[in-house]
Design a protein that fits this description.
Layout: H1 18-34, E1 40-44, H2 49-62, E2 67-71, H3 79-92, E3 95-98, H4 102-109, H5 117-139, E4 141-143, H6 149-154, H7 175-185, H8 189-192, H9 206-210, H10 214-226, H11 231-236, H12 241-253
Parallel strand pairs: 1-2, 1-4, 2-3
Helix pairs in contact: 1-2, 1-7, 2-7
Length: 283
């Protein structure tokens, strides 16, 4: 899907072609997994739409028996999230496992009882990722990512937690595109239509925490990032100046999360600057 500017300077809808996306992304998963010599993936299944889409794309790409979904609830997680994860497992026909992260999280924070929700949420996200990588080694599989483009651009995720993966089929899709693709590939409607939440604590929702809706910010990010609108053009497209400033600041401030750790350059070919090849380099 090719981005194109509106010469009148107004808003431009985000292009969405679910049939094309499904074909491209299942091909991506099959190719990227097999080129490193494995056949399987492990995915954390939260009960939300992002992980549901990633899991179902992987099932279509690799076959259901080559996808292991791991549910990792904490004691405050919503029972509905587990029900929704089970619905995806049933629809996709994939393998599954449940690992309760309550014992290790509570044991850690028993030493730090004053920790706020952000610390607790980050710890849970990183705990879940260590479990995924442990089972990826046991299962000889790659860890499949579930972060969408909106979250990645805003830095709305935990570095080395839910943002970590070996490959991510939905990382170039805005949340609104994920919703459209989810409906097209048969994700149960109760998952697509519910309010997005990381389910980190009771009552938490993404949009309440961010302070704006995904549809609103996707419209802005598409013009800002994909079509490279200037600040003046964004204001002419009727986005409020404080909203533009806040979102621009979030994108700038989270750039470090989208890069490998900065390596001090002391040779002619520094990794990630001069030595930049696809993961099948040398094969």
């Amino acid at each position: 899907m090719v981005a194109s500017r509106d010469t009148s300077g107004g808003r431009v809808p985000i292009p969405t072609n679910p049939a094309l996306l499904r074909r491209v992304l299942t091909g991506f998963v099959a190719n990227e997994v097999r080129k490193v010599g494995v056949e399987r993936v492990v995915v954390g299944l939260s009960g939300g739409v992002d992980s549901a889409v990633s899991a179902m794309l992987a099932a279509a790409a690799l076959g259901p028996t080559n996808v292991l979904a791991i549910k990792m609830p904490y004691r405050t997680s919503s029972p509905e999230s587990l029900e929704h994860a089970d619905a995806v497992i049933a629809v996709a026909g994939i393998e599954s496992l449940q690992v309760d992260i309550t014992p290790q999280i509570d044991a850690y924070f028993a030493r730090f009882p004053d920790a706020d929700n952000m610390r607790r949420g980050n710890k849970m996200a990183r705990e879940r990722m260590t479990i995924l990588y442990d089972h990826s080694a046991r299962w000889r599989a790659l860890v499949l990512g579930t972060s969408n483009k909106t979250e990645l651009l805003l830095g709305y995720g935990t570095l080395y937690g839910d943002m970590a993966s070996a490959l991510n089929p939905i990382g170039d899709l805005y949340k609104t595109q994920v919703w459209a693709l989810a409906r097209a590939i048969g994700v149960p409607p109760e998952i697509v239509d519910k309010e997005p939440s990381a389910d980190l604590w009771s009552g938490q929702t993404d949009e309440a925490e961010l302070g704006f809706g995904y549809r609103e910010v996707d419209a802005l990010l598409y013009l800002m990032v994909d079509l490279r609108y200037s600040r003046a053009e964004l204001l002419a497209a009727r986005f409020a100046a404080p909203f533009v400033e806040r979102v621009s600041g979030m994108v700038r401030g989270s750039q470090f999360k989208r890069r490998l750790p900065v390596i001090a350059k002391v040779s002619a070919r520094t990794i990630d600057r001069d030595f930049r090849y696809a993961r099948d380099w040398g094969r």
